[in-house]
Design brief:
- β2 (about 35-40), α2 (about 45-50) and β3 (about 55-60) form a beta-alpha-beta unit.
- The chain has helices at about 20-30, 45-50, 60-65, 80-90, 105-115, 160-170, 180-210, 215-220, 220-230, 235-245, 245-270, 270-290; strands spanning about 10-15, 35-40, 55-60, 70-75, 95-100, 125-130, 150, 175-180.
- α4 (about 80-90) packs parallel to α5 (about 105-115) and α7 packs across α11 (about 245-270).
- The chain is built from 12 helices and 8 strands.
- The strands form 2 sheets. The protein has a 5-stranded parallel sheet.
- The protein folds into 2 domains: about 5-180, NAD(P)-binding Rossmann-like Domain (Rossmann fold), CATH 3.40.50; about 185-290, 6-phosphogluconate dehydrogenase C-terminal like domain (6-phosphogluconate dehydrogenase C-terminal fold).
- The protein is of the alpha/beta class and about 290 residues long.
Length: about 290
């Protein structure tokens, strides 16, 4: 199948914020004349998305809009996706595919089996690795996914042709697409995404709870700013992500706690060699990773 074989004439977006809005803008650029219909919890958000030309109109008849769409994107917090799947399931036509932008996959896949039933084959799970601390339609950008990774976690029920169509949609947004199993996905991102967010939230929360927080923040510089940038992310979204990937994240927290305790012991024992060894290994890995990034 060539890129030109995949034509998207109409897509429906549930959630027109950073993830959904950027997808819509990128798909508009790749498929001129394509129609975008938006659904969401807030009419104010949808009106803003329309003013920003992210969507053509706000969806009113869910059944008609979903049934006549080539692709449906679920770009809501993962905790809401099961409910949405239940609502759209009766209206999925034979040519309508569904993908998502959730940061966890095991829970989303379970929700798909529970709520889509025999139409689960229409759902090809995805995770775009292109978030930001900002949210809402104002944060949406047509180039958000350019050069960024998107992970698909296909189901056994998916046909190869349907997986390829969804792959082509994300590639049309400029993304580099790869595939993992849902379990592999959640284990990988617990380590390199979910844990870092948890640590950033924890550090900022610790500062926020101190009586001298204003004094501390007045001296905080680039190191604090860089490490805590992601603590400005959506609390609702990250609440759902942490709970959804609970088991893998608990394992990572235990491992990190062991690492912190090793540092604690080195400090307690004035073990300069141990500290330098840990720091050197970390520096070398970070430097090599940064140099080899695309």
């Amino acid at each position: 199948m060539k890129d030109t074989d995949v034509q998207f004439r109409k897509i429906a977006i549930f959630g027109a914020g950073l993830i959904g809005g950027s997808f819509a803008l990128a798909m508009r650029r790749a498929h001129p004349g394509m129609e975008v219909v938006g659904f969401g919890r807030s009419m104010e958000t949808l009106r803003l998305a329309k003013e920003l030309n992210i969507i053509d109109r706000m969806g009113e008849d869910l059944g008609r809009e979903v049934g006549t769409s080539d692709l449906v994107l679920l770009a809501t917090p993962v905790g809401k996706m099961g409910e949405l799947m239940e609502r759209i399931a009766p209206h999925l036509a034979g040519n309508t595919l569904v993908t998502d932008g959730g940061s966890t996959k095991g829970d989303v896949v379970s929700a798909a089996y529970e709520n889509l039933g025999e139409k689960v084959s229409r759902f090809i799970p995805a995770h775009p690795i292109a978030g930001a601390e900002l949210s809402g339609p104002e944060a949406a950008r047509a180039d958000l996914y350019v050069g960024k990774k998107v992970v698909l976690t296909p189901l056994p029920e998916n046909s190869g042709e349907d997986v390829l169509k969804v792959r082509k949609a994300w590639e049309a947004c400029g993304a580099i697409v790869s595939e993992l199993t849902p379990k592999q996905h959640d284990e990988v991102f617990a380590a390199v995404s979910h844990l870092p967010h948890l640590l950033s939230f924890a550090l900022v929360h610790d500062i926020a709870m101190r009586s001298e927080r204003d004094l501390l923040l007045s001296f905080a510089a680039s190191g604090f700013r860089d490490f805590t940038r992601i603590a400005a992310s959506s609390p609702e979204m990250w609440r759902d992500i942490c709970l959804a990937n609970r088991d893998a994240l608990l394992k990572e927290i235990r491992g990190y706690a062991d690492e912190l305790y090793a540092l604690y012991q080195a400090l307690e024992n004035n073990d300069a060699a141990k500290l330098e060894n840990i720091f050197s290994i970390a520096r070398d890995l970070r430097s090599n990773w940064n140099q080899n990034r695309p």
